[in-house]
Amino acid sequence: MTLSQWRSQWTGNTRADILSGLVVALALIPEAIAFSIIAGVDPKVGLYASFMIATVTALFGGRPGMISAATAATAVLMGTLVRQHGLDYLLAASILAGVIQMIAGALNLGTVMRFVSKSVMTGFVNALAILIFMAQWPELDPSKVPPITYALVIAGLAIIYLLPRVFRAIPSPLIAILVLSAVTIGLGLDEVHTVADMGALPDQLPSLLIPDIPFTFETLQIILPYSVAVAVVGLLESLMTQNIVDEMTDTRSDRKQECYGQGIANVCSGFIGGMAGCAMIGQSVINVTSGGRTRLSTLTAGVALLIFCVVLGEWVGRIPMPALVAIMIMVSIGTFSWASIGQLRTMPMSSNVVMLATVAFVVVTHNLAIGVLVGVLLSGIFFAGKIAQMTEITSRLNETHNLRTYYIKGQVFFATVEEFNRAFDFQEKLERVVIDLTHAHIWDISSVAALDRAVGKFRLAGTEVKVVGMNHATETIIDKLSNGGQVAAGH
């Protein structure tokens, strides 16, 4: 990256980046506390992690303007480790997860995102929107919150959606926070839940520490499964979010660099007492819709979060939760692909099944990796089915020479082997058989075995066989996998 390119990722949108970063920082506080509770650790673990991860990814990440911090996706994986072995093991697992992510970057594993279909992406986005909305329910439960909460949430949504029509100098979510805070403090609405009710904010800066664990192979056996899970889920959510922000901003970013950035951030987080995290689609959408575009917005969010907690903790603690709920409802509405509902009538059934299955598995399991994995597997199955339908096998008999030529067209692989086997008539009395692969491609061991079988059965019947028209790739795989050189000897 040249100096001018690096500068462009920091400057040119300074005012909007700083303001959007402030909005994100305020919205991060209750979420970081909530994720700490999910992981079973003190709130400061999530808050320190969010500060460090946002700051480091601003410097080293591959997607300017994307927000990374402590997340529910990684927090849910850590609860068991914390309960069984304690906080220090979580910190060690976070550091190891970061190392694994950096190795993934070195191996350029980010390229696997090419195999995630549009239907899976849409399902991922819709599922996250639903989860974000569901996460607000504790602050909307009528048995837990006073009636005034609903009026404040509605007022917050009105400010967020209506104010930009007449005033855009300051992001409307930030104004909603300021106005609702002034109203609740001015009117003495002490019954309204505030940020301070979520948990105590840290009152000092984080310090460098080394996890107090035995450096043994047994320790590695304990933390490695958690580290691998966190690394995979974290990269998956980060790269998916990166794609979404790319589309929202009509720009391209570096997946390999993002793997490095996420890994470095998690390593640094573990060394200051924070847990591992990843990109956050909700906060990233807030940042982008509030005008954030460059690395400065992400850096502002991270630094402001720490300042708000340590220096302005008393005031930040008085921010009413309805203001932040309103912002997250805006995020869920803006994140959901409403066009996908109308497209259910026009899109192919296979695409609809993939999208709906992704949504269902993510929402039910609250595990993004499982939902995306199911979607990718279904996409692969449907794709294989479509390719299999395009395979065509015909034949022509030359009675003069008692010769039948079989013409194979299309892709021959495991899904087309059954049709391939049925295409040959081994009972027909022939002197010669030609299998023409000019317009075909052999892909795997299943198809090689099927071709081997056909050649072998014809020879057992006393028929001379010749395989012609193989392209270089087909010939290579046949020579490598053919059983005893059956096919190779017949061409």
What does this structure look like?
By secondary structure, the chain is of the alpha/beta class. It has helices at residues 3-8, 14-39, 43-60, 72-75, 79-85, 87-106, 118-134, 148-162, 172-186, 217-249, 255-270, 281-289, 295-310, 313-316, 321-335, 339-342, 349-365, 368-389, 417-422, 445-460, 472-481, and strands spanning 68-69, 278-279, 392-398, 403-412, 432-442, 464-468. The protein contains 21 helices and 6 strands. It has a 4-stranded mixed sheet with strand order 3-4-5-6. Helix 12 (281-289) crosses helix 15 (321-335) and helix 17 (349-365) runs antiparallel to helix 18. The model has no long low-confidence stretch (mean pLDDT 89).
Kindly report the spatial arrangement of strands forming the biggest sheet. 3-4-5-6
Strand elements, count: 6
- Mean pLDDT over all positions: 89
Radius of gyration: 29 Å
Topology:
Blueprint: H1 3-8, H2 14-39, H3 43-60, E1 68-69, H4 72-75, H5 79-85, H6 87-106, H7 118-134, H8 148-162, H9 172-186, H10 217-249, H11 255-270, E2 278-279, H12 281-289, H13 295-310, H14 313-316, H15 321-335, H16 339-342, H17 349-365, H18 368-389, E3 392-398, E4 403-412, H19 417-422, E5 432-442, H20 445-460, E6 464-468, H21 472-481
Parallel strand pairs: 4-5, 5-6
Antiparallel strand pairs: 1-2, 3-4
